[in-house]
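Working notes for the structural subgroup meeting. M.R. asked for a predicted model of this chain before we commit to crystallization trials. I am recording the input and output together here so anyone reviewing the notebook later can reproduce the run.

Input as submitted:
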Amino acid sequence: MDTPRIERYDRQNGFDALAINPVSGTPGILNFARQNGVSRYAHDFDKNNFAPRIGFAWRPIGEHTVLRGAYGIMQGPIYDTSMANVMMAGFGKIRNFSSPDNGLTPAFLLNSGIPALPAEPLGPGFRAVPVGQAVRLSPEFLDKNYKNTYAHHISFNVQRQLPGNLLLDAGYLGNLAHNVGSRATNINEVRPELRGATQNQRLRPFPQFGNVSLVQAAWGNSSYNAFSVKVEKRFSAGLNLLSSYTWAKFLDDVEAQSEAGGAPGAGIQSVYARALDKSFSGNDVRHRWVASFVYELPVGRNKRLRTINPLLDAVAGGWSLGMISELRSGLPYGVAEQTNRLNAFSPAQRPNRISDQKIEGSRSRGDLIRQYFNTAAFAAPAAGVLGTSARNVGHGPGLVNFEMSLLKDFHLTESKYLQLRGEFFNVLNRPNFGLPNTSRGNAAFGQIGNTANDGRFIQIGLRFVY
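Returned structure, recorded in token form:
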């Protein structure tokens, strides 16, 4: 059981969306730890995190085949990102001072000291304003019923020992997660029936405040299903080998704190339409093959091809070759409007998807860079209207990367030697392109403007081992 967030001196605020604010006469007040009956904890305890696990290993035929399976409920950490500088309204040390005439007169003079900030009592009306006045505060809070993320973890594998000291492993992996935390979400959004051609602060549920951010809203769900095949050769006869292929599908309905692809900033279109956010995840990689090996060449003083001559051994003996390679399909991308006309104080507005954006057929590299997908497949929705496009709509370019190393050992004594290392990153000098521009309305919409890797990079080093 993880304990909820507390602050040593109870310098922490929450938010009550139902209580009437004494300043504005509308719902929504800040509450403060250990004041007016409020707990010092940011939310209630989650006391039912039961995590049973079961597994088996079975050799049905002979000594060389093993079946393995497992199931378990895994509890995630209570918070998946830092919670250091949130929910501190009324206790922060940051102050803003502005010149009264756009810079002609200083905001204040340092030799006079920093102006005193008028004290404001902590209570239900803290930093609220009457409806219609300029807002002064954007509160942050955690859901009172905040829950730990948990996942059903399922695996089943068949392992087979093959000739040549090889191990073949094939199996299924599943992960079904609930209470997945999303990025901070603004709940002070104009309701759908009130949206119009303009954005009106008075129409917000809590017009006395700016954005009211629900930190790490634990309302997400995800499913990951994968089939994998792995071949492994443990080090013998100078060779170590590992090769694996994964075919997977990853779905979720929240934008994770960190995603490899996806639609940054457009993971949620409206807090009132979260059902529209289910899509393949920004971390969805359908196909991925990774291989690595280290091979000690069989030439040297104590190797299969012995080099008795010291000069010949110094030149030809003691070499090792290594490689790491990765081939994978592209990362997901989603499309958002450059100009958000939802007029709801929402983070983003997606366009309408009127046709499939894929461009079929083989095309040159230049054509892919200039227009990766059919931009005409997306159109602007009306003002105040949600777009029909999914959170993520396609996958970008794939990646092919090979990295190699060439090593040479010069033995000085039995336990001391010099190692000359040559390492080659992106040895093929192949450009792997990043995701296209996905901001509809931008001049570069649909174009690729960056690469996902650097060009060939070579480094040479000398290492003394003792």
